[in-house]
Amino acid sequence: MTAIDSRLPMPSRNPLDWDPLGNLVMRPWYDRCALHLVARWYLPLSRAWAAALTYGEDEDRFAEAVGLDRFPDGWTGRRLRRAIAGALRQRQRHAVADDHWRSAFFGQAVPLDRELVEAEQTRIAAANALMATRFGFLGIRGRSHAVAWQVPAPPDQDHLAAQRGSAGTCIAALLDGEAALPEVEASHPVPGPFGQERWLRFASPGLDGDTAWARVFEPEDAEGAPTFINLHGIGMELDFWKGTIDHTASLTRQGLRVIRPEGPWHGRRRRAGFYGGEPAMALGPEGFRQLFAAWGADVAVLVDWARRNGSGRVALGGVSLGALTSQLTAVAAAAWPERLRPDALILVATSGDLLDIALGGSLSQAVGFGSALHRAGWSDADLSRYVPLLEPRGAPVMPPERIVIALGEADTVTPFAGGLALARRWAVPPENLFIRRQGHFSVSLDLSRQPQPLNRLIEILTRS
Fold it and tell me: What CATH topology corresponds to 157-462?
């Protein structure tokens, strides 16, 4: 191998960073197109892909899992059998590559840098090929469900009373005492384009039998560097798609350590029978409550790890689902020991009104979230009683001057009004509130071209 093979390659350049093109594309029309592609294409293909990986060549169970009356005949059936077989073959190839990657990065022997780079590049290529096999199911895209609904019946009053509060209360309960914090295992470091990278894994405090994972990007001199724990959106599995654009990794050039956790039910934590993030939707409000609580507990472990490994201030934040989790965690942290509390918060494309997201959000409507709830016996009154578990009802642990919020005026997924109301309720100062004429997807994707919210976060973390 050549010398360049001893360092992970630069991340893909976002073509929309070129200002004339970005200014044209990063507008509300893009969000309408993106919403259609996600709800009508990506999610149905993902449902068929997950069914193939779960039921294999059992055609009757596959058909039931994707919402077909029966397995198709003729050319469509033959093409579908090839797609299923291809997905199963690629799953085996990925398993081999992933086993080798784990042995290289977490084994006792310390490999050469080029061996780690080769293992990572082989792993991501196999993961990308596995994820891409979902496009083999295009022939049934229009007939496949987007979500495998498994919404439980609404809880009774006694159950609700036991859970009363916010999801932050559940997060805090998972972290009662020092013994609740699991040991974090760090992989061997590998040189990256902006410093070095490693992975962390630990037993999830909030999901029995689950291992939490996180990728860490560190500057050359990480001692005392501020840390940003960045939570992704629903269905985002950046460690499984090759060439994905991640603007936060480059923050290491400005002296930040960036921790990018994999959310519950995503990536390596994907639940059998579902695609990444699907259980949060499929289980209705209870799915989101479980995810918020488990991911928030993971955050506390990562804040602790960052501080034990030389970090100064620690910021928490994310986009969409990651922002909703972060805002609940920021409230829950008031009950945590001081060393577990994040110092700053950044929320992108968020809302404090979960009822509006569930019933009025465009993605929720597109996948039939409200209809699934009503089929399971949920009334609007049941949902109204439940949503306090999912909303940040208390005050965050950090003061308003350490909170940054970026919103899109045309956001219909996490509707803009709920985000603005949260910013006002938390008294976020004007210099920390960024409102743009964009929608849900563009306001986050455009942060690499217009990084003012991130720059403001850096100022907060680095000022004396």
Answer: Rossmann fold (3.40.50)
